[in-house]
Amino acid sequence: MTSSSSVRQAREALGNRLREIRKDAGLTARELASRAGWHESKCSRIEHGRTSPADDDLRTWAHLCGAEGQAADLIATARNIEGAYVEWRRMERSGLKHAQESVLPLWERTRNFRAYSSWLIPGPFQTRAYIEALLRAIRDRRTVPDDVAAAVQVRVNKQRILHEGRHQFAVVLEESTLRHRIGGAETMSGQLGHLLSLATLPNVSLGVIPMEADRSALWPVEDFWIFDDAQVNVELVSAFLTITQPNEVRAYDETFARMIELAVYGPHAHALITRAIDSLE
Question: Which residues form the HTH cro/C1-type domain (predicted)?
Fold first, then answer.
């Protein structure tokens, strides 16, 4: 996967906007390319969303079309599009600490968090030992600078939002998440016990989808977070995906609602967690 449909649609929308600016200026694509000193196919590639325009391309486009006042907005739009799909190697090139810090503004302004996970305990619910084991594995697998201790502390500090402000958390886990051992039996036992205590918080709703649930209509999907109703973040093998297209956000919203219907809560969820703890022995 090299791009999401939301990134592709956003590029096409920017291309349509640039086409309108060109046509309003009375220029053909060939004329604009000639005046800019570009290959004649460049305008077409940009307008169809096949090529991402550089900042200088957009400044030149706006200047030649007599739309200098739109240049700054066009550049901001293009940068936002490119920021929607970020490879891990790019995000983590200066270390894991920076990657952890980059999401802090989003977490602080969000009021309603919804998360689905089929592989890992979600970040705010992780113990320090679980975080350390997880980030060490990421460091080794992706060969990033070793700042694990600092990155762990950032993630631990971020967990204050569980207890401060008016943040609400609705989390749905596959039962298999409780069985995937991160850091060994002792770390997992502590993690699952911590999960039981967090489930009692008034601002936390924790559901677990039992392994014996009928998945004929909806099977496990990629892990994702929904921030209010404005943004979805998805962690892929190679990249970090940010989704803001309203129709795609709605798709994740609908999927989460259906996951809730499959999950069990309260004593039933606690029993599944306790069973997972007992299996560690």
Answer: 18-74
In this prediction, residue 2 carries a pLDDT of: 40
Distance between CA atoms of residues 14 and 62, nearest Å: 13
Residue 162: which of 217, 220, 205 has the closest Cα? 205
pLDDT, one tens digit per residue, over 153-190 is: 999 999 999 998 899 999 999 999 999 999 999 999 99
* Closest by CA position to 124, among listed 88, 79, 169: 169
Give the number of other CB atoms < 10 A from CB of residue 176: 15
Euclidean distance between CA atoms 242 and 82, whole angstroms: 10
pLDDT in tens, 248-274: 889 999 999 999 999 999 999 999 999
The answer for residues whose C-beta is within 8 angstroms of residue 249's C-beta and 6 or more apart is 226, 229, 230, 231, 232, 243
- Among candidate residues 244, 253, 223, the one with its CA nearest the CA of residue 121: 223
The answer for residues whose C-beta is within 8 angstroms of residue 82's C-beta and 6 or more apart is 52
Domain boundaries, the chain: 5-82, 86-279
The conformation of residue 38, written as its DSSP 8-state character, comes to -
Domain topology for 86-279: Endonuclease; Chain A (3.30.870)
- Strand partners of residue 226: 114, 232
If DSSP codes are grouped into helix, strand and coil, which group holds residue 93?
coil
For 71, other C-beta atoms within 10 Å of its C-beta total: 16
Question: Quick check: 209 and 176 in contact, CB under 8 A?
Answer: no
Domain 5-82 in this protein, CATH class: mainly alpha
Q: Which residues contact 251 (CB under 8 A, 6 or more apart)?
A: none
